[in-house]
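Subject: design request, 235 residues
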């Protein structure tokens, strides 16, 4: 029997948008949107937030405790090392990596990439960005890496950038791995849509979408796509 855990990487020290994880979207923090939506996945055995040891992130840790989600702390820049701290002692076969700047991350899309990861027998699978054969909207999905490969990466002589971006050494093919870019079903194949929050302007746009079309933390990917399409057509 397989065991799959999700690690949500989050911190408050973003340079482009400081403290964005505690910024509000529809009356809830971005962190709560991500945590609650990931927790609704049916194929995850554990969800943990991985943040830094920076004093600034004490507030994020307090928010995690308020939300009742497990939190682990580690290096600021060595995010791969932070992931290793998060999975230490866990017998998981697979690790789902979720970036906390994706408030619309969809539990159904997470479950789908987990299913395809296991059924294809690969070491790495993703449906979180429009790259290669993946044509999902940016911000709904996630990436899955085998726990064995993740642990091997942690022992390798990777560049600081590769350790910061966790799976970059696989994506740039520095480390060979059997990989799968998941293809979206037709109703979710909107690779031109982007729902991540990188800058303040991104949050403003998503706030308008949430408020105008009454989206909630339980809204599915289809509802969000429909709302985004209607918003674009009304301009």
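Subject: RE: design request

Done. Sequence follows.
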């Amino acid at each position: 029997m397989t065991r799959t855990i999700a690690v949500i990487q989050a911190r408050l020290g973003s340079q482009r948008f400081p403290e964005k994880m505690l910024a509000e979207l529809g009356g809830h923090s971005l962190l709560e949107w991500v945590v609650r939506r990931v927790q609704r996945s049916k194929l995850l055995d554990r969800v943990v937030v991985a943040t830094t040891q920076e004093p600034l992130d004490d507030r994020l840790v307090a928010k995690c405790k308020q939300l009742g989600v497990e939190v682990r702390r580690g290096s600021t820049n060595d995010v791969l090392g932070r992931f290793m701290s998060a999975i230490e002692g866990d017998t998981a076969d697979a690790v789902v990596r979720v970036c906390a700047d994706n408030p619309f991350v969809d539990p159904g899309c997470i479950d789908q990439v987990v299913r395809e990861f296991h059924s294809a027998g690969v070491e790495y699978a993703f449906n979180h960005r429009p790259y290669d054969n993946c044509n999902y909207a940016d911000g709904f999905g996630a990436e899955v890496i085998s726990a064995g490969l993740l642990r091997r990466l942690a022992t390798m002589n990777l560049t600081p950038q590769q350790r910061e971006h966790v799976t970059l050494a696989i994506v740039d093919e520095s480390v060979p791995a059997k990989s799968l870019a998941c293809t979206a079903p037709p109703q979710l194949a909107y690779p031109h849509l982007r729902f991540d929050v990188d800058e303040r302007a991104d949050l403003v746009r998503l706030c308008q979408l949430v408020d105008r079309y009454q989206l909630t933390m339980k809204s599915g990917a289809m509802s969000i796509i429909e709302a985004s399409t209607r918003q674009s057509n009304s301009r």
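Residues 96 and 144 are 4 Å apart (CA to CA).
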